[in-house]
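Example 3.2
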Amino acid sequence: MSNRLNRHGFEMDVINQMETPFYYYDLDILHMTLEEIKRQTDNYPFIVHYALKANFNPQILNEIAKYGLGADLVSGGEIKQASEHGFKPGDMTFSGVGKTDWEIRLGLERGIGFFNVESVPELDVINQLAGEAGKTARIALRVNPDIDAHTHKYITTGTADNKFGINIEILDQVIRRAQELPNIHLSGLHFHIGSQITLMRPYVMLCETINGLLDHYEQQGINFEMINVGGGLGIDYENPDEHPIPDFKQYFDTFKNHLKLRPDQHLHFELGRAIVGGCGSLISRVVYVKENRNKKFVILDAGMTDLIRPALYQANHVVQNLTSSGQDTATYDVVGPVCESSDVFAHDCLLPATRRGDVIAIRSAGAYGESMASNYNMRPHPKSTFISR
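Structure, written as tokens:
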């Protein structure tokens, strides 16, 4: 492999051999991310699960499984995918508000570690299906702590208005119900307050809520084996070259310093974006540069079918021209070819003077990029390539 890297660290010889659009994964960044997680969690009772919904590319999963992480799953398909790519069933958690009977049966059959239970009806169904299978289901109750993480409304999950979890005011009766059911083992409490969280204050508030609950239930003689605080740690979408790896030290230190775990109690995390977001970029070529009365448009061969986050969440991704070497710049709207006005990657984006055939990188696309791709407009799914130097 050639070492001809451009100024942003991309292997251009590899890029020039690929048909665009495609996902470009830097495995060195992924490995450094996993090493940093290991460094920050060593010597603590912390167990990290990787959230497959962020990216379930088989090679990505193989690399993560090598580091001994567990898996956080939200469908039967993800249970199968994790099982096929090196994740141990006992290290799996199964989340989601709408687990179907076949998915629950599959989790029981595979012997997954925990079901994160989101409602009383779900609790009753798991108990019934576990009894039919002659098994005991280990569960954690997902608590809605009514904490606003101040992220986009579509990725906020921990307020009273969200569909997720059990409202904290009825938790006592749900715990009593779980303790009465013969095929249920209540192992702990589960929380997840949102995604792309970059300020630690919401996590401090979560720790304070959990501390109060642990005190409350300890007084009743109820002790939990584990606490699961979910994930949600954000990445730096604005500065991918300077900060490809999140500040895991600050994140894990927040829980080390503010959460009062009991002896022999384990703390579980479910990180997705923070693990894979920075290692992936969507690579595209310029099809046309178009100018109208008010705007210049860079029209790419990649579209919202390949990376839907800007259209769905109004998400910002840094856009870089990898091949233009001129000093002149211009301001463009960077758009895709899909027949939707929302198929826009960036508005008013300052780029080097851009021409047909230039190679464009849309950065920080390793999470919720390839995994959310679709065939709308009968467009094919993007392929992927992997770089390790």
